[in-house]
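mind reviewing this stuff:

——
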Amino acid sequence: MERIIGTRSLGLRAPIIKNGDNLIDVVFNVVKKAADQEDIVLNDKDVVCVTESLVARAQGNYVTIEQIAEDVNNKFDGDELAILFPILSRNRFSILLKAFALTGKKLHICLSYPQDEVGNWIMDEMDLFNSDINPYSDVLDMDQYKKLAGDYKHEFTGISYPEFYKEVAENSEIHFLNNPVDALQFTDEVLVASIHTRNIVKKQLEENGAKKVLKLDEILTEPVDGSGYNENYGLLGSNLSTDNKVKLFPRDGQSFVDALQKKLIDEFDKQIEVMIYGDGAFKDPVGKIWELADPVVSPAYTGGLTGTPNEVKIKYLADNELEGVDGEDRDEAIRQRIAQKADNLVGTNDTLGTTPRQITDLLGSLCDLTSGSGDKGTPIVLIQGYFDNYSDN
């Protein structure tokens, strides 16, 4: 019988996870229950995906704002500190800024303009275009910003983030700049708060005389007074938990996915893959915000998810190689050509007519859209048929 359903992404409901829960058993039981009660048949290359927040909660990977402040003070000696290129976010950054303010240092919050790294705008781009401001060289203070931006509010949150950040950290000055070296006119100690540009920004600062430069992934890389930590990502990937507590990115992800995979394979006798996912990597077409505020889409995944898809675009074959073939013969010819080309692409990490991207980035984006960020209660996602193609029965 010809298959009708191809790829499907299923959000699986899970119990509320708390510190100390055996998450491997929890996820396994959810998948098994779905298979038993919903008549889901597990197959080779199915993927069980678990959101990073579930893993971090089970680990108890939290840190207070006081512990963050202590670590910052341990690593920076001066009385002033530049916070360079933070994203504009209540959940992601404002809680960290609250912690930095507790250091007692004078903070210089240096915002990029007209938008932050992931596409949050702090002014109308046409107001900047119609001005005599050069965003590549001009450094603005708060008064100059207000003159340029007026009463601009974020399209989705309705917040003026420069004013909001000033309220969060009263011991701060807000500056607007795009050349990272310009931050050194305020202080020679800098905490780089950007996500995806952090390494090149740090290098630029060090090459231009900064005394001390650290990145967010170099804060809370080890415990402070019994806190959580992340040796690889530090504060990157963190998120608001309470008014004085931050949830960090999960640790030891590889051991988790490997152990869960073994348990699933032993139960279902299928080569099931497992991954942890965070933010998807996609861009909102209206707000122009790039979703990825985590350092990576997937901090850990099993071996079968390494690399990029070996894909053939059907419309490319139909338009270029099978234009004169009609009806059922055309469908069968396409299946045969896909199978032939897919076999030739195995192991090459190549594609035909498609944009190559990491498998985990594609799957993680699908998971993020499936589970959402609200109250769906489906932090586990089962993806089936993702690696199938049109030639498979």
Q: What stands out?
A: The radius of gyration is 24 Å. The chain has a mean pLDDT of 89. Residues 140 and 184 are 14 Å apart (CA to CA).
